[in-house]
Design goal:
The protein has 74 residues and is an all-beta fold. 0% of the residues lie in helices and 28% in strands. It contains no helices and 5 strands. It starts with 10 loop residues before the first strand and ends in a 9-residue tail after the last strand.
């Protein structure tokens, strides 16, 4: 995959965590973050594996994550 910023080749890999990974448009300053309505769950529920595939550009220091919105609804 080519980086949309610098057009160099990106590295394929994974984003991993010991907790569920979500995208939210507001920062939550609490020890445990739960997905709420409007958030995007990037990994299956709390008890599923917290791993999602991603692309990394070492030059731009950007990570791009693709997800299936039907599988990960909140």
């Amino acid at each position: 995959m080519r980086c949309p910023y610098c057009k160099n080749e990106m590295e394929y890999g994974f984003v991993q965590s010991n907790q569920e990974i979500i995208y939210t448009n507001s920062e939550k300053n609490v020890p445990m973050v739960w997905a709420r309505k409007g958030d995007v769950r990037l990994t299956p529920g709390f008890w599923g594996p917290a791993t999602c595939s991603a692309w990394h550009c070492p030059g731009c220091r950007k990570v791009i994550i693709e997800y299936d919105p039907d599988q990960l609804k909140v």
